[in-house]
Design goal:
62% helix; mainly alpha; single chain
Length: 142
């Protein structure tokens, strides 16, 4: 019918406006960056896609998902170069206190796991990850 096409053509504009206003209202959330300024945006987006489910699992209180996620982050840190772009060399340094990298975010999430769960079995894995991350980043974390 003619009226249904008007309704359907108007809805996408409303959705776009709603999404944009929601995004605008969340502009206080810092964007994730790489310490190495030469890192490409597609590489960063791929890394975000990889780590997002792991970080989300850290907030799962059922079963042992949070512990498995923390142990996975430790393995990712110690056995791969996943976080290498988050640690700057002397030539490409963005000030550590003014940026948020994936390693910074991972440390914050793991600290949340350690402080919000009352499970002693999680604490050691959390401490291990944070100490390894601080050492890996040479203390330059946000």
């Amino acid at each position: 019918t003619p009226n249904s096409s008007k309704i359907n053509s108007h809805v996408p504009g409303q959705i776009d406006d709603t999404v944009q206003s929601s995004l605008d209202s969340m502009d206080f959330i810092p964007s994730i960056e790489c310490a190495n300024s030469l890192t490409s945006e597609p590489d960063l987006q791929s890394r975000i896609a990889i780590i997002s489910p792991i970080l989300t699992a850290c907030y799962t209180s059922q079963g042992g998902s949070a512990l498995v996620a923390v142990e996975g982050l430790t393995k990712l840190l110690n056995e791969t170069n996943f976080f290498a772009q988050d640690v700057a060399d002397a030539n490409n340094v963005l000030e550590a206190s003014s940026r948020l990298t994936l390693i910074d975010l991972a440390v914050q999430v793991v600290c949340d796991v350690a402080t919000t769960t009352s499970r002693e079995t999680y604490f050691r894995s959390c401490v291990d990850f944070v100490s390894d991350a601080v050492r890996y980043a040479n203390g330059r974390l946000n």
